[in-house]
Amino acid sequence: MKTLGFPKSHRLLKPSDYSKVFNDVALKVPHRNFLILATPNQLGHARVGLIFSKKNLRLAVQRNRIKRQVRETFRLQQDLPGLDIVVLGRQGLNRLDNATVQSSLNELWQRVKKKHRQISSERSDAKPRGTS
Question: Signal peptide: which range, if any (predicted)?
């Protein structure tokens, strides 16, 4: 059984990691309160980065509460594919309670997995077959 930790290897730490995702978006999952951008990585596991601006979440306590929720729901997703993921916050997040945020995020992680499967199957279908 995998441990349910959240080590540094599962986080986007450097500006270049974020730039890679923004410059090469392969997967985009919109939501009323969140936007998830992702690009495949070669690590074999997912990494997450968070962007929540003061414009959308005025108080630090609000930003920190949402970030904790995102990290916790990400940590519990053991079957995410090898993606570098950036989660952006949108306006209206401060009005949501923790249960609503958590259910929205769980739904978003499922949509990320589904969209990744679709993109992967499209790429494998598009590859030319070897001659027999």
Answer: none
